[in-house]
Amino acid sequence: MSSEQSNTVQNAAKTTGDGNNANITPPKxxxxxxxxxxxxxxxxNENSELRLLLSQYKSSVDFVDENGMTPLxxxxxxxxxEAVQLLLDQGADVNSSKHEYNYTALHFGALSGNAEVCLKLxxxxxxxxxxxxxxxxxxxxxxxxxxHEAVGTINNFVPLKDxxxxxxxxxxxEPLLPVVLLEPFxxxxxxxxxxxxxxxxxxxxxxxxxxxxxxxxxxLVDMMEREMKRRxxxxxxxAFKYHYLGYVxxxxxxxxxxxxxRRDAQQDPxxxxxxxxxKRVLKPNKDGTLEYVEALVRECVRxxxxxxxxxxxxxxxxxxxxxxxxxxxxIIRAAINGQRGFQDTITFCxxxxxxxxxxxxxxxxxxxxxxxxxxxLHWFTxxxxxxxxxxxxxxxxxxxPKDIDSTEISEQLQKLVAG
Length: 419
What we know:
Elements: H1 3-6, H2 8-13, H3 33-43, H4 47-56, H5 71-78, H6 81-89, H7 105-112, H8 115-123, H9 138-144, H10 148-155, H11 161-164, H12 182-189, H13 196-205, H14 213-229, H15 236-264, H16 273-282, H17 291-302, H18 310-320, H19 328-337, E1 359-360, E2 368-369, H20 372-382
Antiparallel strand pairs: 1-2
């Protein structure tokens, strides 16, 4: 954590404009030896020692230091997800706001920039709309220090209860969502990365391909409509996100059904539709544009049913502007996850668009990937420009992934409405 981030709480508090308490000395806090030891272990990220201390500590872990900060808030500010989980397991109050400037653990988690910490707090019941003494929510404080990944996690969070209602019978009809799919589907709709390939891989990861995709899309449609009909709390952003996820899911299903029909007819028995759809998405035209993605996104926006809402008008304005040359996917990504500065400093997986991938092409070292699967999906196009640095004689050679030898999908996209 940078020194600038470390001073954010104090700097923000100074902007309250309320100096009535400026000269009031807060009461001195007296901690027991065990309580001080817990704070010390958190400060030093000594998780094993913290676990031992907590196993022997039988009182509430919601005690505070001289600034009104609880151990959970300190752990969140450190971005220590293991310590956060230990304290949550010990019954820590996730919404404690005894801090002198009313910061909650989620405020501190957002300031730390650790998206996993934020998700743990949210799943434990943290209030994403809690405001501090300067009227800022956790997401706003995270954005203030450019912790966009944490902000995205907070803004895309969906309470489990909002999905549970689809697991019960409806007017003597079968529930739209089987109970066994509740948690996988819940995780799926909270994904921050909306790249079509990542959506495809997450459907596979969460085991949703084997389910009734038509019912899952019906859930997304209903959730979209609910967001637009909330009294006083309309959430246009999440409404459009549900629409987008459902639209991409529909495209994936069409491609899957097409491939399955070819397989059944033994025209293309070895085709993997996941690879083929990814290839369709990632295939660039001569100028490098991902033509299919551009068409998919524009058609998705065109089919959004709530034409009078602000987010729709903003996206249409940007998509039809002759001055805005940003790819359509970047435009809706900004609409859903917020505008971001210094995009050129952020690295993305060349296959699925995930941020900060930790692997590189073993040949050229120029492009980055999340894992081997993403590299394999992207190889069919990357191999055309990939060049291996010269190697000394006798060094081992790595064989390149095999390209997909299958027929491209011939289905044409509908013509988009011109701006």
